[in-house]
């Protein structure tokens, strides 16, 4: 059977909910990561790397079988050995698994940070993708409220150094200790049971297994019932009150502004004490920029010893979308125009010297020599270096202003 030479070859399309990056947004993305790496070093957080794939049980145990992430959104598959594998939908569970299996308890309290891609099968929308990227910071092995405060101060400084803190609000709540949470949960179930007829189908399904999540339901049918539910404050033990007070005192001492949100919850039982979100109205419906909390029961749920821990995660794409237009200077330090082919060797020496000296430099050395200067002048750069020959002698001209341009000129003329 012969092939039709005129048949059009179909072009492969990207997987829905993924994105290719080039130019401005890729630069914004890289800037967020660069600032994160610099700030996490200031706070003594070590870089950690964990696999993109994990046994499905890692996330089923940590996120809960009844959560939407596990039941609807995970990319899970059976590998050739018959094991159920999942592309990581979040970082914390994998880091907790690594903490157990590698014996990292010897380093506790362990402060770690990472960033990279995550995967969830959900409806793509502004600021939300099926392959997305997050920054992540965790403190494992510390039950001190100072660890919570330090993480929040770290997050606050990150947002300020990115230049996106304006219009972003830190909202904070306490979920109490185990005794506080259990008493509150009992009262909430009693309240919701008394209003079963008024709840949405999703909230009725959550009532038995995850009742705290009804408090942050977006369904209008649930809001009157959720808004009239008892707050946790009535059930806090004195120890839980002291813990929350120490966290907020730490924030106040560091000059970090915050607001209380008594309806901010985490549905799974291993969450304790502090829960928080940095929120904005600049990203439409996807208003959470950074969020996290204390998860003292997670490592035990994964089969490890009882271990206190707290952490947060932030979407890189969302932070990149918040960056101002003037935050990133994508200009080169220098561009070299080779106006006479006989001076190419000199130009290449200049190119190498500038790059070794730490100056980002490109060269224009192809095409018509008469057009190279104009071509180079269109490339955004602080310095325009033209190299050519006049009356048989080489010449170097440097155009531009500023201390960095003067350093470039001195280096090139010294060749």
From TrEMBL:
Localization terms from the record: Cytoplasm
Q: Which GO terms describe its biological process?
A: histidyl-tRNA aminoacylation
Oligomeric state and partners? Homodimer.
What is catalyzed by this enzyme? tRNA(His) + L-histidine + ATP = L-histidyl-tRNA(His) + AMP + diphosphate + H(+)
User: Know the name of this protein?
Assistant: Histidine--tRNA ligase
- Which family does the UniProt entry place this protein in? Belongs to the class-II aminoacyl-tRNA synthetase family.
Q: What is the lineage of its organism?
A: Bacteria, Pseudomonadati, Pseudomonadota, Alphaproteobacteria, Sphingomonadales
Question: What CDD domains does this protein map onto?
Answer: HisRS-like_core
Q: Which residues bind L-histidine?
A: 90-92, 120, 134, 138, 266, 270-271
